[in-house]
């Protein structure tokens, strides 16, 4: 058996447990996901009637190579030829275009994929200017930066998403002056599935902290930046007059109203934000057992309520009220523990008197609902009735 055969071989071992199977793949130690040893470059032959996009890829097992133009697949036919020559674990790949004209301009991408991973690189073909290789991996901030409040309401956090490869270094600025990591300021760079989460946390915020904040991210490929404004009441530069980022100034409360539990939070914000309730990571929407309410108690101040009708132990968990407006985002968390909670006994019918034996005997009867065994005590007035010959 050759190495190439082993790459695709799956072994199904017998199990001592009936009906159970498991899969695994046999790999070699020198395996590797595709990596571009040389990113795409453009070359024109001497006759100037052919154009070559060329790159070198290292991979083991051999990768599947695909080319795209403006996100549309390029097939090896007519004026386009796709070539790939192997030397060891290196692959010299090329897309050849014959009789090139201006209509062939655009963004070209090559992807290499094997069972260990995938890699891609892009290059632009531009007839108006010199062909320039796209700066793959340059830091790019995606989405609008947000202002959030820490759960203890003592700090604010600037947060934005970033893509970069390799991992960048950060520098924050306040009104053009560098901010160093330490003291009241805390830099955070956290890797996430989409790239990096960039944050600046500021403790003990005061009016002097208002103004423009800028973050720059640098790596060996390039540099990117993003800006955000922190505005307070009375700041003439604020975009929304009297605007307030969402803030929960008080601890959440849990109240019981009849057969319902009400989770209440106090919110300050302007304009009124979008409100979402969650149990764990699942959104709680209004329905037969859940009612979502809002009550304005004063200017820019609201009481938000999530009512849970006929709660059960399955309703227990961590609830979160999320508030977002144009100026920021905030969350309030509430832990609801209903484990072990039981309903108390419930009288389903009022007591009734049933005469028997021509009035010589009376029977007092009532119906009770309970999930557990009952201890029953009867009273005459305030005095407990003991079981005797006359009372049973």
From TrEMBL:
Location of the Ig-like domain: 34-126, 139-231, 246-339, 345-392
Keyword Cell inner membrane: no
Highest taxon above the source species: Eukaryota
Any single GO BP term: homophilic cell adhesion via plasma membrane adhesion molecules
Alphabetical keyword list: Disulfide bond, Immunoglobulin domain, Signal
GO terms under cellular component: plasma membrane
Transmembrane region(s): none
Keyword Oxidoreductase among record annotations: no
Pfam families noted in UniProt: I-set
PANTHER family assigned to the protein according to its UniProt record, in alphabetical order: CONTACTIN 5, IG-LIKE DOMAIN-CONTAINING PROTEIN
Protein name: Twitchin
Species in which this protein is naturally found: Nephila pilipes (Giant wood spider)
Taxonomic placement: Eukaryota, Metazoa, Ecdysozoa, Arthropoda, Chelicerata
């Amino acid at each position: 058996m050759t190495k190439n055969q082993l790459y695709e071989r799956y072994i199904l071992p017998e199990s001592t447990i009936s009906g159970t199977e498991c899969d695994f793949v046999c790999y070699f130690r020198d395996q590797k996901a595709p990596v571009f040893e040389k990113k795409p470059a453009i070359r024109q032959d001497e006759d100037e009637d052919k154009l070559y996009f060329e790159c070198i890829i290292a991979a083991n097992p051999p990768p599947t190579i695909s080319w795209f133009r403006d996100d549309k697949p390029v097939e090896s036919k007519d004026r386009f030829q796709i070539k790939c020559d192997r030397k060891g674990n290196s692959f010299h790949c090329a897309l050849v275009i014959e009789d090139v004209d201006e209509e062939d301009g655009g963004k070209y991408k090559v992807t290499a994929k094997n069972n260990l991973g995938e890699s891609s690189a892009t290059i632009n073909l531009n007839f108006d200017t010199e062909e320039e290789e796209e700066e793959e991996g340059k830091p790019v901030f995606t989405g609008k930066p947000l202002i959030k409040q820490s759960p203890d309401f003592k700090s604010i956090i600037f947060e934005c998403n970033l893509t970069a490869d390799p991992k960048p270094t950060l520098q924050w600025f306040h009104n053009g002056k560098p901010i160093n990591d330490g003291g009241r300021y805390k830099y955070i760079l956290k890797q996430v599935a989409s790239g990096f989460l960039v944050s600046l946390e500021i403790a003990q915020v005061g009016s002097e902290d208002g103004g423009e904040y800028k973050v720059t991210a640098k790596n060996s490929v390039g540099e990117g930046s993003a800006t955000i404004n922190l505005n307070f009441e009375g700041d003439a530069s604020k975009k929304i007059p009297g605007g307030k980022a969402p803030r929960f100034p008080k601890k959440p409360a849990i109240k019981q109203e009849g057969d319902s539990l009400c989770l209440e939070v106090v919110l300050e914000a302007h304009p009124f934000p979008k409100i979402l309730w969650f149990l764990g990571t699942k959104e709680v929407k209004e329905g037969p057992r859940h009612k979502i309410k809002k009550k304005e108690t004063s200017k820019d101040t609201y009481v938000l309520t999530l009512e849970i009708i006929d709660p059960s132990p399955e309703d227990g968990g961590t609830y979160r009220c999320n508030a977002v407006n144009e100026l920021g985002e905030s969350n309030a968390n509430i832990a609801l523990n209903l484990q072990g909670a039981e309903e108390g006994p419930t009288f389903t019918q009022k007591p009734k008197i049933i005469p028997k034996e021509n009035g010589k005997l009376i029977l007092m009867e009532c119906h009770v609902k309970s999930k557990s065994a009952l201890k029953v005590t009867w009273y005459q007035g305030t005095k407990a009735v003991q079981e005797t010959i006359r009372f049973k």
